[in-house]
Design goal:
Radius of gyration: 20 Å
Shape: globular
CATH topology of the largest domain: Rossmann fold
Largest sheet: 7 strands, mixed
CATH superfamily of the largest domain: Response regulator
Helix content: 25-40%
Oligomer: single chain
Number of domains: 2
Order of helices and strands: EHEHEHEEHEHEHEHEHEHHHEEEE
Length: 377
Amino acid sequence: MTEALKIGVLFSTSGPYAPMGRDARDGAEFALAEFAATTGRTVAPVFFDPRADLSAYLEGARQLLRDGCRHIVGTITSAARKEVIPLVEKHDALLWYMCPYEGFEANENVIYIGGCPNQHLIPLFEHLFPRFGVRPYLVGANYVWGWEMNRLARELIHNAGGEVLGERYLPLEETAVDRIVADIEQRRPSFILNNLIGPSSYAFLAAIRKLGERDPAFRAENCPVVSCDLMECELDEISADAALGQLCAASYFDNLDTTDNRAFKVRVTAHFGGARRVSSVFAGAYTAAKLCAEAISAAGSDEPIAVRETLYNAAWPTLFGPLAIDRETNHAALPFHLGRINAANGFDVVTSRPPLSADPYLTRRSRPAAPKLRVVS
């Protein structure tokens, strides 16, 4: 296969979650530029900005497919992912999805590089319950991510003998959080699970910070706000120190002290012409785009069946370690890291676990991934 690799990149770089979309686009662009430079192959990424409009995601996916892209790296929210999947299926293409999501999905036309609940929420709760208790308060965005994450959280809390003290939802982009915070102050939970996104999450964190200033019981060290979807690129959007000390689960953090990550950050700085904090969404999009290009090249074709088979038969070197894609679910085995927001608007890693095999339907116990596969060099 010698023709140009044509890969679609579908992220909202404007709109309410633009910081995540911009970082994701940068990560994908960087991966494809590196691949072209190191292999000598011509890579032709095709970019589309849906502006956080669901109908525009569908328009963008349709345009990318018509332009000859059989592979699309993209979408941030689960709503957007679910919007484009039927079209990707219709055209027998592959969507490379790289954000943490709520699970209960496994589609043969999607490669899941983002974590599902047994890779983020379950190990997060296993860390929190013995340290803070089992009487949390749940907040979420009023769409599938918030609903499903809180539904699963309720089950986990019930199974641990705990109690959900409150559960509230906000529309996307809603920043009026005072009533929710007042309810939290009255009910006095042991911690708060935050499944809001974008401006709603930023306003909520700022309001909880003010609550902690007048009532020490709600300081981060006593009643943390914990998230599975807050990323480094968003922290500068939050008012000064508003998120300090709060916790987030992710498969990657910028300050992971590994040889591969240090070398990666040097390359990022050289490419973008200045130091920048690498977010988990940047790392996820980079990994998805790099894996996409490498698998197409190794398969000798961009035909999805050939690409999937190539993926299944090897462990691929990535920022997450050697990455294996499960043949049954199309999900990646991913590590778990828990980060605490520091004064420099980054994350200090509190605890980590080695890669966990994905279990999107929670039909088996979470277990470390130990793929006996050839590691691609």
